[in-house]
Amino acid sequence: MASSVRFHLCFLVAYILLYYVIGLLATAHNVPQAQLIPFKGQHLMKVSIGTPPVDIYGLTDTGSSLVWTRCPCDVCYNQIHPKFDPKKSCTYSEISCQSEQCHLLLDEATCSPQNICNFNTGYASGLSKGVLAKEKVTITSTSGQAVSFDIAFGCAHNDTFYFDHHAMGIIGLGLGPSSFVSQIGSKRFSYCLLPYGTDPSITSKISFGNGSEVVGDGVVSTPLIVTKDSNSYYYVTLEGISVGDTYVPFNSSDKVFKGNVFIDSGTPQFGLPPDFYDRLEVEVKKQISIDPIKDDSLLGTRLCYRTEITNENGPILTVHFEGANVELKPTQTFNQPLKEYEYYCFGITSTANSDLAAWDGLGIYGNYVQANLLIGYDLETMMVSFKPIDCTKQ
Questions:
Q1: What share of the chain is helix, strand, coil (3-state, %, to 5)?
Q2: Residue 65: in which H helix or E strand, if any?
Q3: Which of 84-93, 96-105, 192-201, 307-316 has the lowest average pLDDT?
Q4: Tens of pLDDT, residues 319-362
Q5: Angle 299-319-306 (CA atoms, 0-180°, nearest 5)?
Q6: How far is residue 104's CA from residue 211's CA, in Å, rounded to a whole number?
């Protein structure tokens, strides 16, 4: 009897969701979108998963492709929100080892004795392991209607990935076939990230598909570069950075290779190769009349000041991508990493002696310097666009 009631409940919920999806697709001005919540240098994307739907908050990550969330687990960090329990969803189904999804979505998938596809994925901050499954994911739209997609996702039962207790997993937005973008069939998406330290009660948006294009006055665009790793990362070409009116080239020779930087919404810092960073830091120091903090064990080698760096006392940086100049104000390039201390630190860093060191010769365009820019990815034209905007008012 109980299983019969559950089946009919599932059918009713699925029918209602289908009704909303049909209504959404019939109205051209409705654009699928999700809420972005800033928290401690990361941006959490709110989606609902399962039937009935349960809210989850995953790190918005253009630097990876797998979508996963914590399920009841043997080894994992605590989190504030309840973990997703697949036993309570009537649309959850595990994926077999022989399925095309198991082979396409995960290069290093393993097979359990029960013939279930397992995933094991690593990041700079830890590992996540679990079961690959199929589930219904629901987000909202510009009209407030719900829209659902069937996707393969990782149900993590063992992970050492440390992030803030509010996060429940990762929403991979990379170019790989397992990413949220790829699985929902979206050729375009855009987002607006809030500045570091923004009150979490203030949110912004990420949008998908037609209607998410970045257009209008002030838009600049640069080509996405196809490389051997471009099935995961969004590579662009960084030619140099101007500090005020002084141009600092990426390489001392003033020659750069295509695709020398990738855009990563899941990494806070803008990481640059050591030689480039050192030359950039020298010029930034020259144009700030205040003395930087020295010999502080809390800060290490970071460039920090005891006075807030603002538009009045700090330089504007212009990031010169191929065909696109992106202007960054001091409020985008300096932040207060420790709220209990009056320290204001440069949000651009050297890749040496950090989690970024493995990216030899490459730069990582992290989320600090993506704040207050509407950033759009077009996977048909292979372009990424930037538009200055106040993301708190999006």
A1: 15, 40, 45
A2: none
A3: 96-105
A4: 999 999 999 999 899 988 777 778 999 999 999 866 666 667 89
A5: 25
A6: 29
User: Which SS3 state, helix, strand or coil, does residue 229 take?
Assistant: coil
Amino acid at residue number 150: D
- Show which residues are catalytic: 61, 264
State the Cα–Cα distance between residues 298 and 251, nearest whole angstrom. Answer: 31
What contacts 353, CB < 8 A, 6 or more positions away?
301
Tokens of 316: 């504007």
Give φ, ψ of 275 to 5 degrees: -60, -45
Q: How confident is the model at residue 127 (pLDDT cuts 50, 70, 90)?
A: confident
From its phi and psi, is residue 73 left (phi > 0), alpha (psi between -120 and 50) or beta? beta
Instruction: Round to whole Å and give the CA distance between 392 and 204.
Output: 7
In angstroms and rounded to an integer, the radius of gyration of the C-alpha atoms of the chain is 22
**Per-residue pLDDT tens over the stretch 360-388:** 789 999 999 999 999 999 999 999 999 99
Task: Provide the residue type at 243 as one letter.
Answer: V
Q: Please list the residues that pair with 364 across neighbouring strands.
A: 262, 271
